[in-house]
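Methods, example record. To illustrate the input and output format used throughout this study, we show the complete record for Class III extradiol dioxygenase subunit B-like domain-containing protein. The sequence lines were provided to the predictor; the line carrying C-alpha cells was produced by it.
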Amino acid sequence: MLVAAAACPCPPLLVPEVAAGAAPELDAARAACTDALGVLAAARPDLLVVVGPDDGAGTRDYPAGTPGSFRRFGVDLEARLGEGDGAAGEELPYGLAVGAWLLGRTGWADAPVEGRGVGESLAPDACLAEGRRLAGRADRVALLVMGDASACRTLKAPGYLDERAAPYDAEIARALGSADTDALRALDPGVSRELKVSGRAPWQVLAGAAEGGAALSGVLLHEDAPYGVGYVVAAWS
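The corresponding predicted structure is encoded as:
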C-alpha cells in the first residue's frame, strides 16, 4: 500500500546546469524537493515509483536504470533512474528525467526505483486505476509524483495569462498540501489542458494510489510561479 508520497514540479530549469544564470531563482524549490524526498526515505518503502507526464494517452513502464538526458535543453547531462540496466533503447521523458536527477542529487539508496509515465490525456478513471495498481506493487510503496501546475499565470508565461490559472493553482496547492484526494480526483482534464497543466494525470494517479490504504496527512513545502508557471512541492506521510 501507499505509505508516503512527494509531489514535485518537473521543469528542466530545476536542474541548475539547464537554468544556468537563472539557477538561484529556483533554489527554494530545490530545497523543498530535497525535504520531500526526506519524507519518502523516512517512510522506509520497499519500492519507490517515480510517476510523471508522458506522451500519448496511455501509461508506460520505465525499469530501474533507464537513462534520461537534458541534451534537448542544450546541456550534455544525463540522469539515471536508480540502479539497474534499464531497457534497450529506452529514454526517460523529461519529467521523469527531472525526478531521476532529484534522486541522484540526494543520493537516494533507500529502496529500488521504477518509473511510470502517464499520458497527459489519460482519463481520470484510468489514472485512478493506475494508482491503485501501483499501490499494490509492494507492502510499502512510496511515490515521487512529478508535474507542474498551470503555465498561464502571467503575460509572459508559456500559455499567456489566463484568469483561471491562479485559482486553479491555489486549489492544487491546497489539495496537495492537505492530501485531499477528492479534490485531485475531481480535476477536469479539459480545463487542465487549456491551462497547460502537466501534473493533472500524475496527481490523479496519486489519488488512486491513496485509496484503501493508511490515511496519509499532507504538508505544503513550497508554492511559487516563476516564469508564470505554477510549481508546488508537497509531502504525504
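Annotations derived from this record:
The chain is about 35% helix and 20% strand.
Strands lie at 2-8, 47-54, 59-62, 67-69, 78-80, 113-119, 141-146, 218-224, 231-236.
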